[in-house]
Design brief:
The complex is a heterodimer. By secondary structure, chain A is of the alpha+beta class. Chain A has five helices and seven strands; from the N terminus they run αααβββαββββα. The termini of chain A are far apart. In chain B, 68% of the residues lie in helices and 2% in strands. The chains are: A alpha+beta, B mainly alpha.
Amino acid sequence: MISLSRYLIISLFSYCVIFSFGIAQAEPISSAELIQNPQWYDKKEVVYEGEVIGEVMRRKDGAWVNINDGENSIGIWMPLELAKEITYKGSYKAKGDILQIEGTFNRACLQHGGDLDIHATSLRKIKSGWQRQERVILGKRNLLVVLSVILCLILILRISIIR
Amino acid sequence: MLLKPQIKDLKIVTYYLGKIVIGLGLTLALPLAVALVNQEINPAMDFGIGLLTSLIIGLILIILCKTTEDLNWMQGMSLVGLSWLVAMFLGAIPLFLSGHWKCYLDACFDAMSGFATTGLILVQDLDHLSLSHNLWRHLMMFIGGQGIVIVALSFFVRGLSGAFKMYAGEAREERVLPNVVNTARFIWLVSIVYLILGSTTLACVAQAEGMPRGTSFFHGLCIFMAAFDTGGFAPQSQNILYYHSLPFEIVTITLMLLGAINFKLHYSLWTGNKKEIFKNIEIITLFISIMVLFSLTAIGLNKVGIYPKPAVLFRKGFYQLISAHTGTGYMTIYAKQFIRQWPAFAFMGVIFAMGLGGSTCSTTGGIKLLRLDVFLKALSGEIKRIMLPESTVLTQKFHHIQEIVLEDKQIRVSLLIFLMYLGLYILGTIIGCLCGYPLPEALFESVSAGANVGLSCGITNPSMPVLLKITYIFQMWVGRLEFISIFTLFGVLIAAVKGK
């Protein structure tokens, strides 16, 4: 009886530890934390989340994708199949896909010349990106018109002075 | 006794300032065209507003202060100092209007950083900046690298004997060719030839590394302008780390080194005098300095063991060091890594490299190697004088394009500028410490700003104190123009108040 209760307590404790660890693992880690304390996460599995920015740079054995979490961008090295899931890349004209990456963090990746990077093992698209529609800012347009008129007046004045 | 500047002086300076403002305004037409082609409507209006403002101000100054008189030394020097300030205010207009800078001061900071080829940035959300604004950031570096006044000299000024006063005011005491306007044109020729070769090479590398053709061409162009002019801006927030590419790093190292070489040496090489590269004192000093400072950096990095493989240590250590020594500021690590990961020894190596800079009459900042050579020669001369019999006449020579006999005047001027740079670095460090930053970080950032490098250990960001932003702007301005024209401008302002 005693051994059974002890067994139950140990099992419950182990479950709690594993469960809470699992939750903690699933929480995305910020780029600032990774950059400021890289030694804590070196060679460990991390979850990182952010917007795809720039281009997907396909190489022979994988692809580089840079992901920005709002503070910094971190280079993610991923298999080519994973990179195919990316549709929108952040730029002036587009909001990039928001991805959640799971993978191994490297403080100074020996495979990639010492870069601080994450080698992705899985990818989840949290939110798809979109093309931005640019709206004309009326204040700028009006200022442009006013400045054009002033310039024309000055040019007329200058021509009349020369004559 | 101080002589009060006359209205005539003001008119002459203002008239030529008007010409420079118009010249600078016209350069905004390039990003404007890119914005129109790329259908970036709001950015196109930003550049339109910047262009029209420059033309209006320039024309008003020319009309009000029309003159045919030539510049004297005081006017020429003041004009240069003033031109760079005005260029900062005008260049910042399209940046501020884009909405990517927190305030106009931040936009001015980046504009001065661009023109002075520094590379420190306060831009927010750089990864979503328009192509045209990004092009303007890099174009500012290209214009500033050659010298804002050189733009005017090359294209808008003909047969002006006062041209040399403006040319010298932009920290270029050496003339490549006897005529200053021809020298300015030669500098442009070198830059344009390298622009074509360098940006094509970078574009090919970027494409081979997986970037689409159009984007790789744009990145190649931007990175060339900032690398050759030892600026340090990049189109993406991760700087050179964005590319994750060894070939890209090799090409940028080559361009940075080319940018750090004296234009006179470029001329010698272009005219077939290839032996000069092995004899030139600045090149020899650069080589020795890189060896010594890289050893310092490598020993430091090796001690903490963050880069366990020698090849990796070399790649990271050498890149940051060359970037620092040439005054470029390109980074393949994050700013915070300098403080958090790099040991004091390596940190010190980078600070020394930044402080020294590259060759005179190049696009680099800092003390410059020729001045270090003159200082060391003078020091060794003094020691020899003590050791040799009193009746000995000691003549010291060094090879810089030609055999040069070291004279007292040269020693005095070199030492003066050497000391002024040290003072500038200390000033920024003190203000950094006053703003609450630790000494090593304040020193690093101050040397980076004063020597127009652009490497950052994380202090430079939009939330840093206004006092520090203004201090770094001042350091970038003074450091780029090498003091004399700025001091002349201040002297004129003081004379205007106190003079008789």
